[in-house]
Write a structure and sequence with these properties.
The chain has 240 residues and is α/β, with parallel strands linked by helices. The protein has a single domain, classed as Rossmann fold. Helix content is 37%, strand content 20%. The protein is built from 9 helices and 7 strands, in the order H-H-E-H-E-H-E-E-H-E-H-H-E-H-H-E. Helix 2 runs parallel beside helix 9. The radius of gyration is 17 Å and the shape is globular. The relative contact order is 0.19.
Length: 240
């Protein structure tokens, strides 16, 4: 991802509807996982650190990101347990973490299988892995290219990748389901890929209303519902 995008994310991720909704989904997925209390948590691909603040409520949380710019912005938040490193070569010892989270990360990695295997290496026996990724190759646009994506996934493909790296998939669902049709249509609008990035398209006044569908979906996921389609995929695994 381009370095200047990290500054944009840093400025937007507290209030932007997408980040608010995704945090609700993350919390809903983790609420269904029995795990060591409190777990030591790794945010692999922590970006500018807003999710690390969420994970810190669960236990001791550390982060790693390949971007020095992102790590610097984490430290602006007061997060010290963050270092520069790649998902395919994590700078941690074996079996360190009870929970590894990689939210919208592995689509940025050339070898996602190697990254998932490396996350397993640093996970303790019985540890959990939480992933979110963008869904469906047919939703690909120039924004994926700008963000440095290598792929989008179906839930089945993500499960297969995790099994191949030694993880046992447990809870999987799509999310951002209610907005799938309007988002798919908007991505096909003539001239849409020119100009502003996706994060810059939403007027601030709409962030609250637009966050409601994903927050409602998160409430359903927390109750055990699995959504059959959506713009994104979430998967919770256990270290096999």
């Amino acid at each position: 991802m381009e370095e200047r995008v990290y500054r944009l994310v840093y400025e937007q991720e507290e209030e932007h509807w997408w980040f608010r909704g995704r945090r609700a989904v993350i919390s809903a997925m983790l609420a269904q996982a029995d795990r060591p209390e409190p777990p030591r948590v790794l945010d692999a691909g922590c970006g500018t650190g807003r999710n690390l603040e969420l994970y810190a409520s669960l236990g001791e949380a550390e982060g790693v990101d390949p971007s020095p710019e992102a790590v610097g912005l984490c430290r602006q938040r007061g997060l010290e347990g963050v270092r520069v490193g790649d998902a395919e070569d994590l700078p941690f010892e074996d079996e360190r973490f009870g929970l590894v989270a990689a939210t919208d990360v592995i689509e940025h990695v050339p070898d996602d299988r190697a990254a998932l295997a490396e996350m397993r290496r640093v996970a303790a026996p019985g540890a959990r892995l939480l992933l979110t990724v963008p869904a469906y190759a047919w939703l690909w646009t120039a924004e994926d290219d700008r963000l440095g994506h290598y792929r989008r996934y179906t839930l089945g493909e993500l499960r297969e990748r995790c099994r191949g790296a030694g993880w046992s998939p447990e809870l999987g669902t799509y999310f951002n389901s209610l907005l799938l049709t309007p988002i798919a249509l908007a991505r096909r609008l003539p001239g849409r890929d020119a100009g502003r990035r996706d994060l810059e398209r939403t007027p601030a006044a709409l962030n609250g209303p637009l966050s409601l569908p994903m927050r409602a979906e998160a409430a359903l996921i927390r109750l055990g519902l699995r959504l059959p389609a959506g713009v994104s995929v979430a998967l919770l695994c256990r270290r096999a």
